[in-house]
């Protein structure tokens, strides 16, 4: 059985033989392998944090009110719209309550509401009965009401303290002496879906190799 030499003969630059011991050869090999592993980890481990920005589209409903003309032979004409509410109201535990009165039959109530969190928007009559109700964080009101006393109420479902936007316009008919057909001016709520964009920033970890290839 042959003996494995523990030394390796090398030729120096001056042509003279030199000796490299076996354990020194292993140190060189291991150092080379560790260097490759370190470079691989340095290039591929996600150790660099970068910030990216993306645009995410979303849609909102915008409501506008347009006059609608019509003919009628009832001898009545409608008065200009009476604005019951137009603005932001802070929601208290009991809700936002807006009382109003309809003087004669055939009145028309139009409006909208919008809040950041869901709730309920309810129209009550004088007998405390619900005549109209909408659940959610936004809605459009477009109803006819007989004469009487009413109250509109918005109440949040789980909490309070938010500012809800409410617009209510009441158009009431007024009696006239004329029996000829009259032009009736009414306001109709028109909803339009508008596309908007929101810029969202995100942080993610990438490797040095990913950063080089992305740039």
Question: What structural keywords apply?
Answer:
215 residues; mainly beta; Jelly Rolls; 2 domains; six-stranded antiparallel β-sheet; two-stranded antiparallel ribbon; 2 helices; 12 strands; 63% strand
At CATH level 2, the architecture of the largest domain is Sandwich
CATH superfamily of the largest domain, called what?
Answer: GOLD domain
Helicity level: 10-25%
Structural class: mainly beta
**Any idea how many domains?**
2
Low-confidence stretches: 7-11, 71-76, 176-182
- In what range is the share of β-strand residues? over 45%
Instruction: Output the CATH class name of the largest domain.
Output: Mainly Beta
The SSE order reads EEHEEEEEEEEEEH
Distance between the termini: 60 Å
Output the radius of gyration: 39 Å
Shape: rod-shaped
Q: Please state the average pLDDT score.
A: 75
Question: What would the CATH topology of the largest domain be?
Answer: Jelly Rolls
In DSSP terms (H or I, runs of 4 or more residues), the helix count works out at: 2
What's the total count of β strands?
12
How would a crystallographer describe the biggest sheet?
6 strands, antiparallel
Characterize the structure shown:
- The chain has 215 residues and is mainly beta.
- The chain folds into 2 domains: 7-51 and 203-214, no CATH class; 58-200, GOLD domain (Jelly Rolls, Sandwich), CATH 2.60.120.680.
- The protein is built from 2 helices and 12 strands; from the N terminus they run ββαββββββββββα.
- The protein has helices at residues 22-44, 208-214; strands spanning 7-11, 17-21, 48-72, 76-78, 82-90, 96-102, 107-125, 130-145, 148-156, 163-171, 173-175, 182-206.
- Residues 7-11, 71-76 and 176-182 have low confidence and may be disordered.
């Amino acid at each position: 059985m042959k003996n494995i030499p523990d030394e390796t003969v090398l030729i120096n630059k001056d042509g003279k033989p030199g000796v490299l011991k076996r354990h020194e050869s292993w140190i060189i090999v291991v150092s080379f392998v560790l260097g490759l592993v370190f470079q691989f980890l340095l290039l591929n481990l996600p150790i660099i944090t970068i910030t990216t920005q993306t645009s995410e589209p979303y849609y909102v409903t915008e409501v506008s009110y347009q006059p609608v003309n019509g003919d009628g032979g009832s001898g009545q004409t409608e008065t200009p719209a009476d604005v019951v509410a137009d603005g932001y109201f802070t929601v208290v535990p009991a809700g936002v309550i807006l009382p109003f009165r309809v003087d004669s039959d055939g009145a028309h109530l139009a409006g909208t509401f919008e809040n950041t969190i869901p709730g309920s928007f309810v129209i009550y009559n004088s007998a405390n009965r619900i005549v109209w109700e909408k659940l959610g964080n936004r809605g459009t009101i477009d109803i006819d009401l007989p004469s009487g006393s009413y109250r509109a109420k918005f109440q949040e479902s789980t909490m309070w303290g938010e500012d809800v936007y409410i617009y209510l316009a009441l158009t009431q008919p007024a009696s006239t002496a004329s029996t000829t057909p009259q032009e009736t001016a009414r306001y109709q709520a028109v909803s339009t879906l508008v596309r908007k964009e929101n810029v969202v920033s995100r942080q993610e970890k990438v490797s040095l190799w990913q950063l080089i290839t992305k740039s």
